[in-house]
Amino acid sequence: xxxxxxxxxxxxxxxxxxxxxxxxxxxxxxxxxxxxxxxxxxxxxxxxxxxxxxxxxxxxxxxxxxxxxxxxxxxxxxxxxxxxxxxxxxxxxxxxxxxxxxxxxxxxxxxxxxxxxxxxxxxxxxxxxxxxxxxxxxxxxxxxxxxxxxxxxxxxxxxxxxxxxxxxxxxxxxxxxxxxxxxxxxxxxxxxxxxxxxxxxxxxxxxxxxxxxxxxxxxxxxxxxxxxxxxxxxxxxxxxxxxxxxxxxxxxxxxxxxxxxxxxxxxxxxxxxxxxxxxxxxxxxxxxxxxxxxxxxxxxxxxxxxxxxxxxxxxxxxxxxxxxxxxxxxxxxxxxxxxxxxxxxxxxxxxxxxxxxxxxxxxxxxxxxxxxxxxxxxxxxxxxxxxxxxxxxxxxxxxxxxxxxxxxxxxxxx
Length: 414
Prior knowledge:
Shape: rod-shaped
Oligomer: single chain
Helix content: 55-70%
């Protein structure tokens, strides 16, 4: 269905363009024709009947102006392919009327001498031929214009029955056939040019449409990609937040056992690689079960938070990590310490927690909450078995508790 509706529309577009091409050249052709008409009148009015020659001139002027102004609409922006058929007919009829007016000059030839006839004959044959360049874009209007001229003068030449004139008549007919063929070839060539141009234009329009669609698709993909990037960033933030939550002890707000396990392995390997010391403090709150029994779990949680906050202040250097090891037990990893530094820091930590003066009436060690600390240190690890550090710190913690609690014990793991 679409193919059948597009085909006539394409023909109308081509016809409209043919008319535009012809109309652009029409004013110059009209004015040249009027100048020739006035020149012929001026040259031959003395030898011709005045009423005939001036009547002919008036007819040429009126029809020329009619032809010019009747198709002026073609040059405007309002002219559309839908108007092409109507104006093509108007263009052809006015061409026929003007050609017939020029042909009517043949009726004045009997009043002229031989030389004047030859001059008029040559002029009008030239006019018929010259019109090809201005009207070939719409070849039917050319035929309507040229045929009356050529037929009229060929007929006049034959009627004279003189050898020279008969010869000219035959040549005129041959010339007419030649101009018919030439006009048709020029017309088809121009038509193909117009069709080709419209074809390229339609292709360009389609390419522009495709380009627009591709640009829109690209923009859509970029928007989608931007949205996906935003979603991925949100997901990464969410995952990072979840990882942080998974690595932090919910009660105390310091790293949990999971974080401790990852940290001890990481810092042990770093100490081994960089040939550094590593130390571990295991801290246990003394008599914490009885504390919970007396003060209840809410106060117990508060006490653990205070211990954790204090412990985290002792992770002073890069690589130092304070963590909740489990229950009332905490751990502190120290990166590249000396033995004296470990001893001094552990004792300072114990005293600082004592100084919190958290009342503990159920303790047999002190009236306040106390901690026992077991410490182990390794001077440059030689293998990847960090469990020895934990084991020795646990053993030192056991010794501190067994010796009466609220004290520090130190062990050398390696």
